[in-house]
Specification:
The protein is mainly beta. It is built from two helices and 14 strands.
Amino acid sequence: MAGREKRRNKRYNAAGVRGNVRFLADLKLVNISIDGAAIETSKRLDLNREYKFMIDYKATPLEARGLVVWSQLVQAEKTKEGDVVPIYRSGVKFLDILDEKTIGLMNFIDDNRVRTPERRLGGVRCKISRPQNMTVGYPYEYLVKEISLSGMEIQTEHALDPDSRHEMELILNDKVLTITGRVVTCVKVPSEKTVKYDIGVEFLEMPADVRELLSHFIDTLEESEES
């Protein structure tokens, strides 16, 4: 078993439980306004799904949640290795740009815009004069193997670096719980088909209501194990 870390709580078999890891990846910012942006990525974003976006601005990360309202394949690029990579362009509507976030985003736009803004329905979008460090949190699915109140062992097709921290979604009884986890171990699982990894995760941040729901779920696992 992958997780050999010292555990504070007993883990229970959670076969069938799934979730998503938010994995940050670079993107190209095409244009932006206070209420949305157009971006380009090498992986298609799902329509009507929320993503977390971060812009590195003057050593201070600007963070926003955005809803993808449209997405289309615009071109394909060839890498140095000869691989063909698709490029998708997507429209994003920001959901939580308020207070200090609004001021930071407005300053970012003013510092980086091309002085001939794009006029469009719903407002004015500004093209960006130079590449920026902006990332999007892709949801990569994982399968839960074992779980406790302090951590879990998951299996996924994507390797995660030990000691890295990730925002994770855990789907329990149709409810999506958001937890911050630290990767403790990552072990490649031998397979004839798809490469998979067993990953030990320690829970770091968990709101009280999330902990209550998780605790109730674990109680049901314990009861079923004893019966």
